Amino acid sequence: MPHDPIHDLSGNARLREIMRRLRDPENGCPWDIEQSFKTIAPYTIEEAYEVSDAIEREAWDELKSELGDLLFQSYFHAQMAEDAGLFTHEDVVNAISEKMISRHPHVFGDESRDKSAEQQTVDWEVVKAAERAAKKQDGVLDDVALALPALMRAVKLQKRAARVGFDWPETTMVLDKIQEECRELVEAKDTLTQAEVKEEMGDLLFVMANLARHLGVEPEEALRDTNAKFTRRFRSIEAALAAQGKRPEDSTLEEMDQLWDAAKAQEKATTAK
Question: What family name appears in the similarity comment (predicted)?
Fold first, then answer.
C-alpha cells in the first residue's frame, strides 16, 4: 500500500488537507460532497452544545474531543465556501484576527488597560455598534442571530433593547407583568384558539426570560440545570420502583410523588454534608 502524504502533515495543515480531500469531487466522500451550508449548520449547532455539555460535566477528556468536532465544523464551512469561490480558510482566520484586534485596543493598541471589566464591556458594545453601522445594520436588533435557541435569543433581544432605554427599571414591574400574562393565559385558555394560546404562552416565556435577566440569571443555563435535576430525580423514581418489581406506568401519581420527595430529601441531605 503506497504511503499517503497525509500522515506527514500535522495540526492545521493536516486537518485542512483532510477536509479538502473529503470534499474532492472525484475522490472524496459522497456524503461530504453532497453537503451544503444549510445541511451542515444543524451539526455545527449540535457540536457547540456538546462542547457546553462536556464543560458542564467537567469531562475534560471529552472536551478535547468535542472541541475538535466543533473545529472540524468550522473547517467544513470554510471548505464549502472555498469550493464555491466565496472566501478561503485564510479569509476566515484573518477576519476573526482583525475583529479581535479592533475590539481590544487596550491589549493591541495604545488604549489604557486601567479600567473595569464592566467598562470594557461598554467599550466592546461601542465597537460592535460601529461594526453594525459599517454593515448598514442600523436597527438595534439587526444582528441578533435568528438561529439562536429561543430563550437565549429572547435575552439577547432584551439586552440590546435595554441599551437604548427600552426596559423596565425595576424587577417588581417585571413580576407584575408576569402575573398579568399568567392571568390572561388562564382566564382566556378556554376561549382562545390554539394559535392564540401559543402566542400568550410565548409572551409569558418572554417575560420570564426578562425576569431572569433582571435577576442576573442566565435562563438557558438555569433551565438546563433544572432539566438535569428533573432527569436525576425521575431516574431515582424508576430505580426505586424497579426495586419493587414495578415500572412508572404501573404506579400511581401518589406513589411517584412520594418517591420524588424522597429523592429530593436525599439530594439535600447529601449537599448539606
Answer: Belongs to the nucleoside triphosphate pyrophosphohydrolase family.
